[in-house]
């Protein structure tokens, strides 16, 4: 049955369907982008955690070496002690 306003109702209905399809498509795109962002964030957090572990190990090694160097004064070949200029403590001479 066609009557006055039927064409307008069909047009509005079709526009509503098109609008809904566009919104659903955009929602799917955004969900995909969100999932990709979450994955990347998780990867970066894992990298940061691994890097923190590496830095902690390096800091430990630095501390051990500094303590070892501070134990006894180093001497040059002629018997003179070498001193760290930053702390005034004796250090070992490292040959290069």
Describe this protein with a few key phrases.
96 residues, mainly alpha, rod-shaped, three-stranded antiparallel beta sheet, 3 strands
Write the layout of secondary structure elements.
Elements lengths: L5 H66 L2 E2 L5 E3 L6 E2 L5
Antiparallel strand pairs: 1-2, 2-3
Task: Write a short abstract of this structure.
With 96 residues, the protein is mostly helical. The protein has one helix at residues 6-71, and strands at 74-75, 81-83, 90-91.
Question: How would you explain this protein's 3D organization?
Answer:
It is a single chain. The protein has 96 residues and is mainly alpha-helical. It has one domain (6-91). It contains one helix and three strands; from the N terminus they run H-E-E-E. It has one helix spanning 6-71, and strands spanning 74-75, 81-83, 90-91. The longest helix is centred in the middle third of the chain and has 66 residues, at 6-71.
């Amino acid at each position: 049955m066609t009557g006055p306003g039927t064409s307008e109702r069909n047009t509005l209905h079709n526009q509503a369907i098109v609008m809904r399809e566009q919104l659903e498509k955009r929602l799917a795109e955004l969900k995909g982008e969100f999932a990709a962002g979450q994955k990347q964030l998780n990867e970066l957090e894992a990298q940061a955690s691994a890097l923190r572990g590496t830095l902690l190990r390096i800091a430990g090694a630095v501390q051990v070496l500094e303590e070892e160097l501070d134990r006894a004064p180093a001497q040059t070949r002629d018997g003179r002690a070498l001193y760290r200029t930053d702390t005034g403590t004796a250090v070992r001479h490292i040959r290069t």
